[in-house]
Amino acid sequence: MKKIYNRIRTFFNVIESKIAFYPSLLAFVGFNLAFIMVYFEKGGISKKILENFPQLMLEDGDTALTIISACIGGLISMMVFSFSMVMLLLSQASSNFSPRLLPGLISDKKNQVILGTYLASILYMIFTLFSIEPEDKKYSLPGLSIIIGILLTIICLAAFIYFIHNMSQSIQISNILDNIFEKSKERLDYIINKEKEIDIKNNLHFPGHTNWNHYTTNKSGYFQNISLQNVINFCKKYDVHIYIAIPKGFFVLQHASFIYSDKKLDDDMRKELFSNFNFSRGELVEDNYILAFKQITEIAVKAMSPGINDPGTCINAVDYLTELFALRIQKSDSGVIVSEGETRIKIAIVPFADLLYNVMASLRTYCKHDPIIVQKMVWMLSYLKDREVFSEDYTKAIENELKILLSEAKTAFDSTVDTEYIKDFSKKI
């Protein structure tokens, strides 16, 4: 039962990130609400309202048809405008910042819910329209259904105002950076707390996997999720150790070695094991904190391109990278999963030194000509060097990157004044 629940949750997490998920769900609700109201209207609910609150009822069918038709036309216009705004946001974010931001922006639940509210209201009023005849009098009109349709229109107007506000906020780079940071921080905090709970420093032993049996996937895609508890139960059930050779969030090629085991697995066992892994064609920060480093680095690099030339955004991006690295240095590079005192699973991860190099290599290449940005990167590395780290190897990697940065900055600056200033600045901090 738990295995089925984990698979359903994984499936839901995938489809929830699609832009059409909430609009489709709410449209279904609106469609069904119209038929539910038909049932209540047949029960005479509008007649009871007419007896107690006659001022709420419309006089004739023509007036009702005119009002409902006007509401439908207005909502369709608002929905078209809103969808156009979403497409504009995605296009602008892709061209100005990074195409890698699109999955996160598309999965914004607020915009999805607003668009879904439009669709639900339109479908509700279209099907309500079928139950109104032009010659209907006050006592025979579906009064409550019409009132609900008008209320839904008012709700959509309020949602439209909020939608404009949300869109104006979403396109601001400060909010984009903050959103990426908060999602990745939440993920990193969760991992770090888990490692503290199991005392990871004393549970790093895992047998070597050099001569183990290796198995490949039947399809390619990004390694997005894993039902970890199911895999742990699998290892206990068959008394096997598993090494996952591709880090989470990376692209897995078809027929490439993905899983190693110390015991040979038959076809049924392989199917059972691989059913707990989820692959997709997209990436989300919620599933892989490494993606946050990639996205923020790409924003910084794009900001320093000649076509955009926005060093302020680059400085903001480096600030967020500093905070993320300050969290990452508290996490181990082991990838060992400890359950009930046993270490049966190990997942390949991106080592801190490689992660730092990948970020700094891009920043050095595109930002080393700007002394202000170089100063900011020197400050970031000096700050990280003085923090408490999980391993002394992290400090050595930071010192090495600082040395490379200062060496390349000397040859990149056109002015000796800038070179001397950076040299003096590095000595002071």
Automatic annotation (TrEMBL):
Keywords, in A-Z order: Membrane, Transmembrane, Transmembrane helix
InterPro entries: DUF2254_membrane
TM ranges: 20-40, 64-90, 111-132, 144-164
Signal peptide: none
Keyword match Cell division: no
One family name in Pfam for this protein: DUF2254
Listed name of the protein: DUF2254 domain-containing protein
Native source organism of the sequence: Jejudonia soesokkakensis
